[in-house]
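Morning. Coffee machine broken again, so started the prediction first thing and wrote up yesterday's gels while waiting. Chain of 258 residues, entered below exactly as on the submission form.
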Amino acid sequence: MPAPHNPFKAALANKQPQIGCWMCFGETIGAELMTTANFDWLLVDGEHGPNDIRSITDQVRVVDPSNSHAVVRVPIGEDWVLKQVLDAGAQSVLVPMVDTGAQAEAIVRACRYAPDGVRGMGGYGARVTQFGAIPDYGTTANAQICVLVQAETRTAIENLDDILAVDGVDGVFIGPADLSADMGFPENPNAPEVQAVITDAIARIAAAGKAPGIITLSLEQAKTYLDLGATFVAVGIDTVILANAARTLSKDAKALIK
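Came back before lunch.
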């Protein structure tokens, strides 16, 4: 029995737009709630969310049976971090702060078994093989792992062609917040100068046959990015969705008091 098919990876390869949402609570119940929203993909945030390998595993576990696909953002592109997340059952990973082609190549190798990479062959006793129930996982997994890297600095944009040339990189996600800060426009990703770089980057990523990705909390802007060719677009953050809804409800309810 081979490794499970990765529908998200296939959708990106077929240029089918995928709408997603960030999950920053770090709690299984929150992830389970989010699966009822029918997003195409849900990001388990191991970089800025309060997560460790156990909470990441639990969230992947509840997302897996749903119509959404779990993408795990690791805190850093180290071999041992990627190994743990993949053995926990993640099929798609997003790696932050990738500035060079060499970094991207190392990340791809960390996500692949030998002879194509350096991922350790210890998954037989882990969740990823259903604890040994998928005997052919080690020989079939490489083709189903989706590797996404984040370009979020001026250096990454300068080296974008080198990153895009790396075989095994399925998509490049533009990080608008960090990119805008690095360009001298902190907290202002909508600055015209930043948007011009993002527009150009999306076009270059798509032209290279990779999937462009980005996050925005504006549906109007999401439509713009989709029209430009972005393939995986996140349109919300679970903590922000709850906070905004709660604040609005509190304000509106208190307005009832005369």
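The mean pLDDT is 97. Going to sketch it on the whiteboard this afternoon.
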